[in-house]
Amino acid sequence: MIAELVIFIILGTVAVATGVAVILSKNPVHAVLFLVINFFSVAMFYLVLSAQFVAFLQILVYAGAIMVLFLFVVMLLNLTGAIESVQDKLPAQKWVGLALGIALLLEAGVVTAAGVFRQVPAAPPPSPNFGTSAPVGVKLFFDYLLPFEVTSVLLLIAIVGSIVLARRRTY
Amino acid sequence: MLPAHYYLMLSAVLFTTGTLGVLIRRNPIIMFMSIELMLNAANLAFITFSRYQRSLDGHIFVFIIMTVAAAEVAVGLGIIISIFRTRTDINIDDLNIMKG
Predict the structure, then answer these.
(1) CA distances from A12 to A52, A129, B12 (A)
(2) What's the Cα-to-Cα distance from A153 to each of A57, A65, A159, A160, rounded to whole Å?
(3) Cβ within 8 Å of residue B39, ≥6 positions away
(4) Which of residues 32-71 of B touch A (CB under 8 A)?
(5) Contacts of A100 (CB under 8 A, 6+ apart)
(6) Quick one: three-class SS letters along A87-152?
(7) Is residue B33 within 8 Å of residue A29, measured between CB atoms?
């Protein structure tokens, strides 16, 4: 219990600090790297919550593939900083956004801390292979076969869409 | 095992961070990363409930959300690059050509 609390506090601090650093950093490359650290700490949370398969999927797909794509585009476009210093069309937007964000945080905090989520029963110890690839795969290919196939169609559409967007306009 | 609302609170904080990023930043790439933050916060909540209910359905949801995020990033970054080809800056406030 104490060990888990210590792990939670350390990982939670890392996750929140890197999340804030993502939205505050001027240089997009730094933001990408902070986001990678954030994804790693969330993957550690998945391991604590005995979701091993999803944790490694998180590291492979998110921290690996998606963030490499981000880094590639950031370095391709080379837009360090200069964008936002031009002129702000809606200067009040930042402050209104900040106020609304704090309101959202308070609302979510009150609902989470005081509401029905406090009555979620303490978790029974999971079976030893809970969250490993075998039971997740069985669930995926039996109970959720149709959503899985629809996912492949979605990926196909995304491939076609990005090829169409990236093509040179020669017509 | 910690109570579930610890993890749910952390998920709420991460989600709010992502929302703030979309609201206060004007750089479309940073806004995209904030959307990824929000998706991750939702995934954390899914995994938390999945663990506390001892059901694997949340893991499947996270799997599908990751697929949707990958597709979204591929298409979105393609759109950003093709915008950047025709104009040199990509301040999100200047992209109002589709405004009615």
Answers:
(1) 19, 26, 12
(2) 20, 20, 10, 11
(3) B65, B69
(4) 32-34, 36-37, 40, 43-44, 47-52, 54, 56-57, 59-60, 62-64, 66-71
(5) B23
(6) CCCCCHHHHHHHHHHHHHHHHHHHHHHHCHHHHCCCCCCCCCCCCCHHHHHHHHHHCCHHHHHHHH
(7) no
Note whether ipTM > 0.85 here.
yes
B33–A32 CB contact, under 8 Å: yes
> What's the confidence (pLDDT) of residue B71?
93
Q: At which residue do the structure tokens 């104490």 appear?
A: A2
Residue B11 has pLDDT above 70, yes or no: yes
Q: Which domains does chain B have, with CATH numbers?
A: 4-94 (1.10.287.3510)
The pLDDT-based confidence of B100 (bands split at 50, 70, 90) is low
Query: Which of A8, A77, A112 lies at the smallest CB-CB distance from B84?
Result: A77
In tens, the pLDDT along A56-76 reads: 999 999 888 899 999 988 888
Q: State the average pLDDT for chain A.
A: 86
pLDDT (tens digit per residue) in A99-148: 998 999 888 888 877 767 777 776 677 777 888 899 999 999 999 999 99
Question: Is A23 in the B-facing interface, judged by CB distances under 8 Å?
Answer: yes
